[in-house]
Structure formats: structure tokens, C-alpha cells
Amino acid sequence: MTTTDTPCSRPETGPAITPRRVPRVLSIAGTDPTGGAGQQADLKTITALGGYGMSAITAVVAQNTRGVHSIHVPPLEVLTAQLDAVSDDVTVDAVKIGMLGSVPVIHTVKKWLTANRPPVVVLDPVMIATAGGRLLDDDAESAMRDMLHLADLVTPNLPELAVLLDVEEATSWMQALSQGQQLADTYQVRVLVKGGHLAGDHTPDALVTPGATTPAFQASAPKIHTRNTHGTGCTLSTAVAVLAARTGDWVASVAVARSWLREAIQQADLLDVGGGNGPVHHGHHLADLVDRMVQTQALTQGVGSDAATDAGHDGSFTQSLWDQTVDVRDRIQKGAFVTSLAEGSMPHAVFLDYLAQDLLYLQDYSVALAQLAVRAPEEQWRAFLAEGAAGCARETAQLHTTLVDTRAEVSASRVTSEYTEFLLATTQSRDWAVGVAAVLPCYWLYAWIGEQLAQQAPGVSAAEHPYAAWISAYSDPVFTDAAQRARVLVDHVARGVSPQVQEQMRTAFHRACELEEQFFRDPCDRGGPSREPSGT
Ligand SMILES: Nc1ncnc2c1ncn2[C@@H]1O[C@H](COP(=O)(O)OP(=O)(O)OP(=O)(O)O)[C@@H](O)[C@H]1O
Ligand SMILES: Cc1ncc(COP(=O)(O)O)c(N)n1
Q: How far apart are CA 515 and CA 100, in angstroms?
């Protein structure tokens, strides 16, 4: 994720939320037939962030990127019937409330909310559309104030914040923060203060909580030069609702929602929707996933009748490699790395040491993949391996950022050196087929460990587990997908080589599996970092 955010956060506690991997999120809002704001933006956001989206429509708005043409408010009974249809049948984990429009609609939603309050309620007090057009009646402002206390989080933009407090709109970030704090204190509700409307070249945001003296979270990043910011407010508030229901952690939810939205704004110009203030790209991270799925399908078709690639017993060459390394996996599964990471009992120093070694390892693994890419006999394999090499380089850069605070120079441990020397030598000078077999365990065991961690520590949240973020990153389907494709490659290659080379592939795979096991065990065995004394 490209961001120059400078977050400063402290733990922020509130009523307990039971995290759910796929939260059921209801949006109560108006519509936008051009898909950039309101219900349509909310449903895209919920799906993009892994939730299950539902919608109850408050108003049918004929609008586009240039402005609002007309608003039709369905009879109140229709809104009540929609809300009841959802709550009579579905457990709602989070609700996001957007455009309400009028006093009777506010009262209707308030009544339903009082009787059916889900664990997460985010209220975006929508008043005016970016492109112009009032979305809240003038006489509804005080009714809106009267429902703020029912929310866990309120997300006004600066003009809305001013209306809610009945003061002049803030023109500086300090003033905005002070108004946000005043709203939080008056209504005893968290407030997401958004600086998108401030003049200047930065867009600061902050999460303020009742009675606090400093924000629970604050970040700022350069303004992205685009006019396509239609629906950013709807999108941000919904993203926080989904993530809060998913993690139970408001600070983390705001931070992640913000970074994700930033990327959606960054890629907004790709969409080319409308001639005014266009929408943001809610599906920005899915495009890559679909590319990979299409590529996997192409690779799988390329291997004809032996295309079975499931981890089950499919009779493939890679399956036989896997079966022959069951002892290694058993050691990994029972070893201190997986068990202490899953329990959260791994000492932080050991974890940091593991990350530092991983960084050193990935630098060389990236080179190993690049060497194979250069030597690849076919275009599709070159693309796959080069993409893997680039992914490792990106991962290395991210690890550098994570480890920036550990400062001291870290040297490769004996195991890390042994593993990387083996990979570099094998991928550079052995038969290409042997090289691809040597790099497979890193893909495959990584994805497999992700599954083990997800099973041993299901649904962990940042609030209750020190390594929650790491565990969920490990079980990312992206890794399973990459491992699958690496298997397809090795199976394909194995069919075209002699039994002798197949045997060498088998030996290389086995050796790399053993080194993987040692690599995970090593930081736990050593119990701490392997560093060069500073100044050497
Ligand atoms: N040009 C931009 N570059 C980067 N971030 C932006 C930009 N415009 C808006 N944002 C971000 O989008 C979010 C919504 O901000 P904003 O203050 O505009 O709220 P809003 O007015 O409710 O949104 P909307 O435009 O949908 O009504 C904030 O996190 C803000 O930082
Ligand atoms: C139904 C609906 N809800 C909210 C907004 C605000 O979004 P924006 O200010 O980006 O136009 C909107 N335009 N339409």
C-alpha cells in the first residue's frame, strides 16, 4: 500500500465487540445510480473488505458525478419493513447509517436502532453531496444531533461537524480537532475528524474519544491530486464499520480503512466514470487477484489431463514430494515457532529476530526466483517467477519499515545463510527443473503454516493477541493461490524431464523443506537476535 501516513496511536478501548471473519453489515442509506456514493459505495466497500453486505434504502436519489437531480423518499412503512425484514432473520454485526434526509426518516431509524442495536454502529451524518445538493432537510439537524449518542462512531466532514455543534466551520486542523473533541464530549461518542475539506496539501484524519486529551489515532498524508473523490465519506465510514466488526479494534480499523481508501482514491482515475467528481476504485485490490486467478487457470489448462492441483491426493508429482516430507511438516507443526506464535507466547525479541532473518532470507529468495525467471523456457513461467521475485522485494521493503525501530545491524544466522546459499546455487547452476523444485517449499510450506496458524488461533483480534495481524497475513488466500501456481509449474516441469532429473528435483525439494523447518526453529532455539555488534 502506498502511503506516507504518519500515524501516532494509543490503545483505545470500548464496549467489547466479538470479531467475526465475515461480519454481516447493514447499510441504511440513500442510493446513487452511478455507483459512487450511498448504498452502492457501501455495498462495494463491505464486499471489498471481506464482509457480507445488506441494505435498507432510505431514499432513492437520482444523482450522478455532476450533482443531485431529484430525491424520492419511500413511505416510512417501506423503510420499517426493510429494516424489520433484515433484523427478523439475520444477526447484524455492524450497521452503517448514511443519508437519512428528513426528520421522520431519522425517527424511524432511531426507533429501529433502539430496539435492535448491533455491536457496531457507525453514523455518517450526511448533509450535502460533494457535487452539490442538500441531502438533509434544514429542520432535521436537531433530530440528527439527538441520535448521535446511539452511535459508536460518528464521521462528520468539517461542514457537518460545524452544523452539529452550531459553530463556524473549522479552517485549521487544530480547530477541527478541538471541534471533534467537543462533539465527542457533548454526545459521549467517538468522532472521526476528517480533514478532507481543509485547504492545503495534506489530508489529516483523527479518531477522538470522549474525555480524552489527545486523539486515539491521528494520521496525515499528502492530498492526492484527483477530482474523483465522490463517495469518500460514505466509503470511509463503511470501511471502519466492517473492520471494527471484523477486528473489535477501533484504532486499527480507522488506520486500515484510511490506508485502503487512500489506495482507492489513488486508483480512482482508472475508472473513468462520469464527467464530474467521479467515484473511487473500491475494487482496487481485487483486480490483481482476478489477474492471478485468470493466470492460474491458463497455467492449469496448459498442463492438460494432469491438471489436478488440490492439496489432496491427486497422484501428481508434487503430491508425492509432499507425502515424502510428512515428517518435516510434523516437526514444524509441533515446533515452538507455530505453537508459540499461535498462542501469542512467543517472546517479542524472538519474533523480531525471526522477522529480521526473514528479511535477509527474502532478499536472496527474490534473487533465486529472478534467476529462475531469467532462465525460464516459457513466457508464462517467466511471468510467474518474475512476479514472485517482485513480490518478495516488496515484502522486504515492508519488513524494513516494520523493523526500522530495531536499529542494530542484523547478520544472517547460520541456518539462514545455509538455506539462501543452497537456493542461490541451485537456481543459478543446477538444471532449471531442480531449481523450481528447490523454491517450491517456501511457497507451499508458508501457505500451509498459514492454515495451521488459522486453525490453532481462529479469529484472533489485535486486542487479544500480540501477533494477530501477522497470523491473518499468513493465512491470506494470496499465498495459497501462489503456492497452487508454483505446484502447477513443478508438476508441468516434472513431466518433461528424465527420471534422473526427477530424482534430483525430489532431493532438492526435500532439502529445502528441511531448511525451512530449521529456519522456523532457529530463532526459537537461539532465543533472541543474532546481531553484529554496532560499529562493526
Ligand atoms: N484528495 C484526497 N487525497 C487523499 N485523501 C482524501 C482526498 N479527499 C478526501 N480524502 C480522504 O477521504 C476521507 C473523506 O474525507 P472528507 O473530509 O472529504 O469527507 P466527506 O466530505 O464526508 O466525504 P464526501 O466527499 O464523500 O462527502 C478522508 O479520510 C480524507 O482524508
Ligand atoms: C445517497 C448519498 N449518500 C451520501 C452522499 C455523499 O457523498 P458525496 O459527498 O461524496 O457526494 C451522496 N452523494 N449520496
A: 59
For the chain, give the mean pLDDT: 87
Q: What is the mean pLDDT of residues 77-97?
A: 98
Cα separation of 192 and 408, whole Å? 37
- Measured from the alpha carbon of residue 237, the closest ligand is 1
Per-residue model confidence (pLDDT) at position 260: 92
234 is catalytic: yes
Instruction: In whole angstroms, give the CA distance from residue 328 to residue 139.
Output: 70
Nearest Cα to Cα of residue 128 among 189, 60, 37: 37
| Whole-angstrom distance, CA of residue 379 vs CA of residue 208 | 52
Beta strands in 402-463 (DSSP E): none
Each residue's pLDDT tens digit, 126-177 = 998 877 778 999 899 999 999 999 999 999 999 999 999 999 999 999 999 9
Closest CA to 118 of 84, 87, 146: 87
Q: Which residues lie across from 531 on neighbouring strands?
A: 410
What is the rounded distance in angstroms from the CA atom of residue 341 to the CA atom of residue 472?
Answer: 12
Is the entire prediction scored with pTM above 0.90? no
What's the pLDDT score for residue 403? Answer: 64
- Residue 67 backbone zone (phi > 0: left; psi -120 to 50: alpha; other: beta): left
Percent of the chain residues past pLDDT 70, beyond the cut? 88
Look at residue 226 and give its three-state secondary structure: coil
CA-CA-CA-CA torsion for 507, 510, 516, 518, nearest 10 degrees?
A: -100
Q: Which residues pair with 122 in a beta bridge?
A: 96, 153
- Ligand with minimal distance to 57 CA: 2
241 CA distance to ligand 2 centroid (A)?
17
d(CA 322, CA 337): 21
Q: Supply the ipTM of this predicted assembly.
A: 0.97
Q: Which of 31, 108, 229, 396 is catalytic?
A: 229
> 444's torsion region: left (phi>0), alpha (psi -120 to 50) or beta?
alpha
User: Rg of the Cα trace of the chain?
Assistant: 26
Residue 42, CB-side half-sphere exposure with 13 Å CA sphere: 29
Is 194 designated active site? Answer: yes
d(CA 245, CA 93): 6
**Which residue among the candidates 180, 231, 276, 388 is catalytic per the annotation?**
231
Tell me the domains of the chain and their CATH numbers: 23-283 (3.40.1190.20), 319-526 (1.20.910.10)
Q: What are the pLDDT digits (tens) for 291-347?
A: 656 666 665 554 433 333 333 355 789 999 999 999 999 999 999 998 998 888 889
